[in-house]
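Incident log, entry 3
Record: Major fimbrial subunit protein (FimA) (1023 residues)
Problem: checksum mismatch between cached and fresh output.
Input:
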Amino acid sequence: METIVRKIRHLLPAALLSVLLSSCTEELLFEEHPRVQEGLPAQVTLGFRSEKNRIVTRAAQDESYENRVNNLYVFIFNPDGEVHYQGFYTDNDITYDTNAGRSKGQVSFSTTSLNNVQIVCIANLSTESVNSNYEVTQEEMKKITSLDELEAYIMTLDEQTVERSTQFMMTGFAYDDNDSDQTNTVINIPGTESGTASLECTLRPERTDAKVEFVVKTEIPNEHRQGQEQWESLDFRPRSWRVMKVPAQSLLLPKETDDADGEGCTYFDTDEMPFEIEARDANYLLDSCAFVFYMPENRKTPAQTISGDGLTDTQRYALREERNHTTGGSFPDKPGQQFENGDFTYAPANATYVEMSGTLSYKVGNSTVNADVTFTVHLGYADGNPNDYDTERNTYYTYHVTLRGVDDIVVEVSSDQEENERRPGYEGNVIFSQEGLHELDAHYDRVLITIDRSQVGDMTWGVQTPFDKAIYAGNFCETDTPEQNGIHDYRWVKFAINEDYGEETGQYYVKYPGDQNYKGGEDKQSGYEGHSSYPNARLLDAHQLLQRLKQEYREGKTTGTVAVTAFIDEYVYVREPSDQNTNATPLLSEWRRYVEAEDRLLYFINGANSQYSPDGASSVVEAIQTFKQKSIRTVYNVKKSESELPTAWGLESRMEGVRWAPGNVRLGTSSSNGRLNTIRCLLGEDYASNNSTLLWTDVLKTSEPYELNKYQDALHAVLMRNRDLNGDNIVQPNEIRWYLAAIDQLVDLYIGEYALDNASHLYPTNAADRENQTYWHYTSSSADGNDPWVLWAEECAALGNYDGSSDKVGGKYAYRCIRNLGVGLDDPETEPTPLIPDVTAAESDGTYVIDCTNLSEKARRLSREVSKLPAHNDEQPSNRPYGKFRVAANDADYPTPKIDVNALNRWNWEDDHDWVWYQTASITPSGYRVPNLRELLIMGTRLPKDAWRTYTGKWGWPVTIYTHSSKAMYMTYTSFSRGSYGTGNSSISGKNGGFRFNAEDGSIGATGSKADGGYVRGVRDEQ
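Fresh output:
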């Protein structure tokens, strides 16, 4: 692994403030020049100008916000460090340059002349209209009496997050412009009773935060570009990133060394977040992926110094990620492990580092290499110093990470030098396989495999799950069980040897015989009538299957292949893996243990060529068959406790197979209970009587896993995600666990989409994943008359009916399957906890408060905004709600809607404006802003009907002849990424702005030239 390290470049100062003072003297006022007469009046004008900064990823705030001065606190300290002057200036007191927004301007104030002063400024203190994420207020600054107090002042983050609002905390000193080194902060202030003179110095407020950007790409090493070891299709699928040991506080003013640390200071780890940008080439292989975050300064002394004596640069750098080793343990379930990792050996305990994870894969000849990797990068390492773990304020760090296979990673920090070094901190579970990899979603599934009998002699098996990570190293005798080797979680894949069930061709799947057929369970005959001639056939787990095959190997069956149907359970744990009481569900409420968990794997491997690393953190296996299953994804907040959030719902990672016709969902009467809808539509209104005549074999084919038999529609396609659990071939209510999403659940999926990776989004980024279609519509289990409600994913979450949609998609619809979490199967009418509860009534002041805290933190803005949101489109992070937000009262629409009716009984809205107009409008009530798309979508689906006022227009006087009444149209601040406005890609024609909500019929969609007028209902973030 190589690391190219360069000197990290500092940001230009956030603001350069020129100080001009009116005075009668023309003397130069720096230390080497005559001193001024003290105590005379002095009129001071402070001008400021912010330098621009480039934008790299979506989470980075636009440069105009990073450099924005919304208010300013100014201190002047006398030579003894005491306050000589202090003043606070709001945006009303600041004169801004109209051509530069709030990045340039000036303030003026009166003081008295004085020698040897220091001038300090603090920008963006916390007020009702300014929030910089740090709790620094005017009241706190008024208490400061000396420079020592100010330098000792520690400010804390108001929320433990690496996101930032549109306002940044900045502090700085005035520097002597005549000092060639620009390091002198001692200034003389002249003054006089009359006349004018000028003093020039520069006040340089700098952002107290550092900005850190990571860009990840792949590269095939030169030695693998040709020849027998040539690699092809090198790819990386990023999963998540997180930042560890982030300071929750910072000194207000910078010091030469050190930072805010010691008693009372805390550090936090962020949750895992999906990568923000993911660019791919024409073959859908990774080009690059990226993310960015902000953090307070963190400057720590190493726990131990890395010496250069006798070590190469490569070895010195490797020690940055070295951990202490704990020996003496026994690791029978992890062949090759010798010790366990402890704390970092050299890195400081509270040094910040980043963890990134994902799946790296490539092909070598006929083999596939697949690795789930996690790599660590400690921040710092400026100028190639292995003992540098510092992250400094007002510094922009860019890390270019290059992945070059399963044991090679290159990290390049923006630099001036060229040095090549190996990079450690790279762990993973690497699978070399000639048979390929069976990648499975979280629902029930099946795979048809063949096993080469000649490989059985050296074959063993292993698992990686939330409960077990192990390779079975026993001898497969009856007394050497997996449990005796500490392995319990291996029964989630069952195997049917095709020949045992009469399927001798090896070309078709065995019909699932029922749970009772498992040899390690009830050990009963198959419940399927078609298996009646094979009473001794049994489902086997991985251990039992290899016991059987090894016995046959010893009996001489060492050539040929054996066909096996593998049945994969859903990724759900309602009991401990060691608990074989299949009627018990003690973990029903503990769904957080497996939702959003790591992929689980079960593999058959060559035991002679598979082992763990000495620290047990990585494994390398030569796989013969591998089953890799994704966990259930969710948009719910898994950090909430069981009492706060007892139930939820989750989803599959993606829609497998093709689109289908919707199916008959006329009995789907609920907009939110998709399971009840699905059961009623499949089994009838009298589903509880168990009189169903729907047969599993009439729905599922035995030749293809994702093809349907008699019923060719999305409603029946959900059964491909379920299983005939008792094997009787009759579809029963408790066997329908994965169901067709209701329309409200589809909307909630979009609202919480930021909690999901790209593959789980409703509108796939990769055109091939949506059959290269621009229009991508979802059917639901909720009926709209005789047809389903439909969601138009290309317009984010636009809702419509089947008639308006069918022609655009050729009658074929995408669909998503949902799984309830923590909810028993007995009563389909029981729904999970709402993602965002309905608001049933207004507050005492007529406003409405919407609580979004059940929503995953990944899907929410974690930094509170107290002014306008930054300009953004639907794909950017600003299009997320805060944890709670307040909606203005129903009589506070802006402007006030009016209906005009004419003599021909035609009507239209008055005083409405198009979407573009609201991009710069200052709306009422004061303190409220235009909502983003997701906020307006939440408002439209959660507020009570009377939250939207009905307006009436009349014509005729003195007698009214015509009357028309309607609820109004409401605009968002969010632009449409696939429209023609701004940076939109124009892939959807006729859409030239943002989005509009129709309160009359509840619809929402992208605006066009003929549907672009509306009003605004203001919102504001609520603490």
